[in-house]
Amino acid sequence: MNATPDSRDAQPAQGSAGSVVRAEKLSKTYAASAGPLPVLNSLDLEVERGEMIALVGPSGCGKSTLLHLLAALDTPTSGTVYFEREALNAFSSAKLAEFRNRQIGFVWQRHHLMADFTAEENVAFPLLLRGVPRKQALAAAGEGLERVGLADRRRHRAAELSGGEQQRVAVARALSGRPSLLFADEPTGDLDEDTAESVFALLRSLHRERHLTSVLATHNLGLAGRCDRVLRLEHGRIQKQAAPGTPGSLGGRGDQVNHV
Question: What is the pTM of this model?
Answer without folding.
Answer: 0.83
